[in-house]
Amino acid sequence: MEDKRNIQIIEWEHLDKKKFYVFGVAMTMMIRVSVYPFTLIRTRLQVQKGKSLYHGTFDAFIKILRADGVTGLYRGFLVNTFTLISGQCYVTTYELTRKFVADYSQSNTVKSLVAGGSASLVAQSITVPIDVVSQHLMMQRKGEKMGRFQVQGNPEGQGVVAFGQTKDIIRQILRADGLRGFYRGYVASLLTYIPNSAVWWPFYHFYAGLPWWRSG
Question: What is this structure's pTM?
């Protein structure tokens, strides 16, 4: 026997909004806690001059751990968690835009193309400023200066001081570059993520609509 099936498309009105937002944020936070140290290490390896500080991922991990402890691997983490908002805004914008476009076109390709691009525009507008601040915080370390800005006072970044460092970095960015300083790389991000999102979703719905066969 052969069973012809299509993958069901879950639309916005089908979602349990409370569960979606609560579990979505919780799951993303768990993943973020696991991978953030490697995000910090990657950022430092990309910024350092040659191999002046670290000789590789493992070497950086050990040196940061010895110098600053576990908290050193999570510099800028509190600020970075605000990007969780952009993830929820991405999905919300995508679904609401699909619903709006449905009044003008029933084509899944058109709805997904417009909604995917719009969702990325909103998400990147929120994410880029947060990333700029958190990446500057990642560069804070004992000893040699790594980034453009150096926080004043206590370099440990523990407790309330972490938000004190955030305020300090924000002030320095504003003083040096104005509001535009928070959107360094914004256009590049849009040119990367908007086409990717706008193309990905139509293909998702295209493949979901194909007949899938199984033997029984």
Answer: 0.79
